[in-house]
Amino acid sequence: MSDDDKPMPRRRFFREGLLELFKPLARSVEPLQRVAEQIGAMDQPVLPPPPVRHWLRPPGSLQESQFRDQCSRCSECVRVCPSHCIKIDFTGDKGEGAPYIDADEMPCVLCTTLACMNNCPSGALQSTMVDFVDMGVAVWHESICLRTSGQECTICVDACPVGARAITLGDDGRIDVREACTGCGTCQHACPTTPKSITILPKSAR
Predict the structure, then answer these.
(1) Is residue 5 in a domain?
(2) Beta-carbon neighbour count of residue 193 at 10 Å?
(3) What distance in Å separates the CA atoms of residue 132 and residue 99, rounded to the nearest whole number?
(4) CATH of the domain at 152
(5) DSSP-assigned letters across all residues of 71-89
(6) What is the residue range of 196's domain?
(7) How many domains does the chain contain in total?
(8) Is residue 32 situated within a structural domain?
(9) pLDDT digits (tens, 9 = 90+) for 100-150
(10) 185 closest CA partner among 128, 118, 102
């Protein structure tokens, strides 16, 4: 007797019979399962993208995306900065892990040697003359300035290392930020109000 002619064991007979019986049911369930999975995915909350944060970068920095890509995080700019204003947060929470300046803590003083950019080995900071430094621009918030309440405060004007070419007191008593502003942050650092009446808008945010 050939193998094909041998009687099929009863257990195998019922098992294969049941498989044949449930095949149509399985085919009908699969589309329903896919629909259920899609509906389940719709129930998942869609989180908004994190807000874009802009950072004040050292003088001579490349454009933001190029700066972050090219900077080697070697900390040389941090080491040579005479005012110790440049920081790196290696956790990435501040400054996206690249060199940044917190003007409230310490501003760039535009040192005569421009040490950070002249010692940067990666080229992320380019040698730039002081007159062409562009870190950002100062923004005066008139509504919270002491001058608005009648006080004769000129601290931001007096503190500016660039002078009248960058910030002056206008004839109308208003603070006038000019094109020569380098965005060094000295005015923000010196401002006595809380919150600050003058802040730096980093060039990446313009």
Answers:
(1) no
(2) 14
(3) 20
(4) 3.30.70
(5) -----HHHHH-TT--EE--
(6) 64-205
(7) 1
(8) no
(9) 999 999 999 999 999 999 999 999 999 999 999 999 999 999 999 999 999
(10) 102
pLDDT in tens, 170-197: 999 999 999 999 999 999 999 999 999 9
Site of tokens 């000295």: 186
DSSP-assigned states of every residue in 9-58: PHHHHHHHHHHHHHHHHHHHHHHHHHHHHHHHHHHS--PPPPPP---BPP
What is the dihedral angle through the alpha carbons of 23, 27, 32, 34, rounded to the nearest 10 degrees? 120
Is the residue at 123 inside a domain? Answer: yes
- Residue 31 inside a domain? The answer is no
The whole-angstrom separation of Cα 42 and Cα 121 is 49
- Tell me the torsion sign for CA atoms 83, 86, 87, 88: negative
pTM of the predicted model, to two decimals?
0.76
Mean pLDDT of 77-103: 97
